[in-house]
Amino acid sequence: MARRRGLIISDEQMRLVDGVLAKLQRVSGSKFVALVSTSGQPITTSPPGVQSDTLSLAALAAGSFAATRQLAEVLNEREFTLLFHEGKESNLHVVQVTDQILLLIAFGRETQVGRVRLYTSRALEVLKPIFEPAEDNAGNNDMVIDREYSREAGAAIDGLFPERTD
Fold first, then answer.
1. Do residues 33 and 105 make contact, with C-beta atoms less than 8 angstroms apart?
2. What is the pLDDT of residues 48-86, one digit of tens each?
3. Is residue 148 part of a domain?
4. Most exposed: 7, 26, 43, 61, by fewest CB within 10 Å?
5. How buried is 149 (Cβ within 10 angstroms: 0-12 exposed, 13-18 middle, 19+ buried)?
6. Beta strand 82-86 with 2-4: parallel, antiparallel or unpaired?
């Protein structure tokens, strides 16, 4: 068991998360993908040695997402779960995984937004069940997800992210 930024997640679960991010980064055509806490702490990235200033990006994205929560409240909306920033050369897609976890996807203008959104929604199907129990059981020392689930999730990842043939 490893403690990751206020969450308890096993090493096996972390490998599963890293696998999801690597596949998401590859099939979506993104420059990099990162999981960060809503407090602005980086959890993991793909590729692991990304040259971006991940710490600053994590903190700024978390702050931006906090502001978005307040905007939703002002508009009497329960929540906004997605941010999209479009630039001349780069785009940033930020989506809420759980109450405490955000997924950041950075990609260039050559990458289709629809492709990023499609594969991101598929990745969330795998990531949410990993992090929601980890948040609920952050004070426990019990394993959050058993080995059978990890095997099934690994197989699900392969099914969710068919290899690109273009």
1. yes
2. 866 567 778 888 988 998 898 899 999 999 888 888 999
3. yes
4. 26
5. middle
6. unpaired
